[in-house]
Amino acid sequence: KNQVEQSPQSLIILEGKNCTLQCNYTVSPFSNLRWYKQDTGRGPVSLTIMTFSENTKSNGRYTATLDADTKQSSLHITASQLSDSASYICVVTPYGNKLVFGAGTILRVKS
Amino acid sequence: DAGVIQSPRHEVTEMGQEVTLRCKPISGHNSLFWYRQTMMRGLELLIYFNNNVPIDDSGMPEDRFSAKMPNASFSTLKIQPSEPRDSAVYFCASSLGRQNNYGYTFGSGTRLTVV
């Protein structure tokens, strides 16, 4: 069964600190893996996309990595800001099939 | 571009009433998706359309749910009769293709509360 597991479930960090969110998946083969950011009361917004052959992708202070051998991805946030407080969702796209969503990690950045 | 537009933003209704959620996708996008999000189950795909045609409605929970896309710029999701367990945030998303390759653009969602 295609699954995407994210950890931790929630995380609180101080402004300016770095953090790393994890995504483990069983989907195989897959077309791409995306990280989405969902602010409270808003729809998810795509942060990064990686195909199975890519190892890393950056978008400003956000850097996603992908290890296709271990079926793991991570999202690293550098120098966190209060506006980073949101839910971060890992989404894997199997070939010719529906997207598989993780449950998300809720990040809260405190001042 | 105003993005994907959903209405209403919030809906509170009594059990048994009919609820209609509306979505205007991004112009030029040929795929439209309806998702439901709850704390317990996260994001679940209900149905998706490609070129206005329903392609996969296997996620629609039961016959009380129906969706239409009469043209490329408008879609509705209807629940009749509504039940308290339907309370959730319903998102509409559109994209250039069926897969996530082009990226989805999500609307801001409709928060539905059935009392």
Short description:
The complex is a heterodimer of chains A (111) and B (115). With 111 residues, chain A is mainly beta. Chain A is built from no helices and 11 strands.
The value of Rg of chain B in angstroms is 13 Å
DSSP strand count of chain B: 11
* Count of DSSP-assigned helices of chain A: 0
Helix content of chain A: under 10%
Task: Give the CA-CA distance, first to last residue of chain B.
Answer: 36 Å
Largest sheet of chain B: 7 strands, mixed
**Cα-based radius of gyration of chain A, to the nearest Å:** 13 Å
**Poorly predicted residue ranges of chain B:** none
What is the helical fraction of chain B, as a range of percent? under 10%
Parts with pLDDT < 50 across at least 5 consecutive residues of chain A: none
The number of helices of chain B is 0
Beta fraction of chain B: over 45%
Summarize model confidence as the mean pLDDT of chain A.
93
Biggest pleated-sheet summary of chain A: 6 strands, mixed
Oligomer: heterodimer
Describe it for me?
The complex is a heterodimer of chains A (111) and B (115). With 111 residues, chain A is mainly beta. Chain A has strands spanning 4-7, 10-14, 19-25, 30-38, 45-51, 56-59, 62-67, 72-77, 86-94, 100-101, 105-110. In chain A, the strands form two sheets. In chain A, strands 2, 4, 5, 9, 10 and 11 form a six-stranded mixed sheet that branches. In chain A, strands 1-3-8-7-6 form a five-stranded antiparallel sheet, with no helix packed on it. The mean pLDDT of chain A is 93. Chain B has strands at residues 5-7, 10-13, 19-24, 31-38, 42-50, 53-56, 65-71, 74-79, 88-95, 105-106, 110-114. In chain B, a hairpin with a 2-residue loop joins strand 5 (42-50) and strand 6 (53-56). The chains are: A mainly beta (111), B mainly beta (115). The interface between A and B is medium-sized, with 20 and 19 residues.
